[in-house]
């Protein structure tokens, strides 16, 4: 079946079998992933993550899904990448769906074109599991989602303020959510926020955003990227969102290297294609091999699962994206 974001987030606790999430809305992806991970933790479900670099790695995914977990009765496998299963892996997928009712395969992919959505992989999961497009095409859908985010932090916007917020961020919901958080910090005692308060708050505080960081990283400007990173940390930007930005850019560059003719299909905006192509010419593809492990180390450090300093590791990743290396051994 196909579920939209709001339907999907209500069914996280009951998710089993196979799910695919695909799209270009980082807020929706991050919220759903956070909801899944919290649910797995609450229900003592073991989580494993796989970042696919080639189609042969699907074998590892299905081997894990079909194995008994040593740590819990149920297992959740989180798969990131834009590599669909081949015929053999698709056969394993069908066997898994038919015979394993307790585990969960959650596949997170970038935006897919119409031909990908008609592929055997998507058709199989849609017929036997759940496909969630991470999109919100209409203003009422975006406002409904952002209203839920506002409720979490105790912010209520007047209708004209909602309209201005969307236009200000060009319908980017992650940036809009970050602005709502700034509004909550700036006007903690106001029950209703209008345009004037919104403008005053954002014009005063939003000097840099994660989107500025993305642009600087792709341009290879290390000093500017570190400056933006430090500003974001000082202004209270969650490290997990900064990590999401870095991992997105790394993933896009790795995918563009593998599929140089498919820039638009893998999720690069048309007006940004040349910048990514220039970044590829600047970078050594051998660096890509170390990126997945570095991202996992950053994720673990942010969650307190290691003794490494997350800010140092994030700066190392920033340098890698800019074609430099920090902390040489």
TrEMBL record:
Family matches, as Gene3D superfamilies: 1.10.8.60, 1.20.272.10, P-loop containing nucleotide triphosphate hydrolases
Task: Give a GO cellular-component term.
Answer: DNA polymerase III complex
What positions does the domain DNA polymerase III delta subunit-like C-terminal occupy? 210-306
Residue span, DNA polymerase III delta N-terminal domain: 20-132
Q: Give the reactions, separated by semicolons, that this protein catalyses.
A: DNA(n) + a 2'-deoxyribonucleoside 5'-triphosphate = DNA(n+1) + diphosphate
Q: Which UniProt keywords apply?
A: DNA replication, DNA-directed DNA polymerase, Nucleotidyltransferase, Transferase
Q: Name one GO biological process term.
A: DNA-templated DNA replication
Record EC number = 2.7.7.7
| One matching Pfam family | DNA_pol3_delta_C
**Example GO molecular function:** DNA binding
Q: So what family is this one in?
A: Belongs to the DNA polymerase HolA subunit family.
Q: Which PANTHER family match?
A: DNA POLYMERASE III SUBUNIT DELTA (PTHR34388:SF1)
The protein in question is named DNA polymerase III subunit delta
What is the originating organism of this protein? Answer: Acinetobacter gerneri DSM 14967 = CIP 107464 = MTCC 9824
């Amino acid at each position: 079946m196909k579920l939209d974001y709001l339907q999907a987030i209500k069914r996280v606790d009951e998710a089993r079998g196979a799910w695919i999430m695909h799209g270009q809305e980082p807020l929706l992806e991050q919220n759903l992933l956070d909801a899944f991970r919290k649910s797995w933790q609450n229900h003592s479900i073991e989580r494993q993550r796989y970042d696919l670099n080639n189609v042969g790695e699907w074998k590892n995914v299905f081997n894990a899904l079909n194995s008994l977990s040593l740590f819990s009765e149920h297992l959740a496998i989180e798969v990131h990448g834009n590599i669909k299963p081949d015929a053999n892996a698709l056969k394993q997928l069908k066997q898994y769906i038919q015979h394993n009712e307790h585990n969960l395969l959650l596949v997170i992919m970038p935006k897919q074109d119409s031909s990908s959505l008609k592929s055997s992989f998507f058709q199989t999961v849609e017929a036997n599991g759940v496909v969630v497009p991470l999109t919100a095409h209409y203003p009422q859908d975006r406002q409904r989602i952002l209203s839920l985010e506002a409720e979490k932090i105790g912010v209520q916007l007047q209708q004209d303020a909602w309209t201005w917020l969307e236009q200000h961020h060009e319908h980017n919901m992650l940036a809009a959510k970050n602005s709502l958080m700034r509004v909550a910090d700036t006007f903690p005692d106001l029950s209703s926020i209008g345009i004037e308060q919104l403008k005053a708050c954002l014009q005063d505080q939003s000097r840099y955003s994660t989107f500025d960081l993305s642009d600087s990283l792709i341009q290879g400007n290390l000093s500017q990227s570190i400056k933006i990173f430090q500003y974001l940390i000082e202004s209270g930007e969650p490290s997990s969102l900064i990590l999401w930005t870095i991992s997105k850019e790394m993933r896009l560059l790795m995918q563009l290297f593998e599929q140089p003719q498919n820039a638009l299909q893998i999720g690069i905006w048309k007006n940004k294609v040349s910048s990514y192509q220039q970044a590829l010419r600047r970078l050594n593809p051998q660096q890509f091999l170390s990126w997945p492990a570095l991202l996992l180390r950053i994720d673990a450090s942010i969650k307190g699962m290691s003794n490494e300093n997350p800010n140092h590791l994030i700066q190392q990743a920033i340098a890698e994206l800019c074609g430099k290396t920090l902390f040489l051994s």
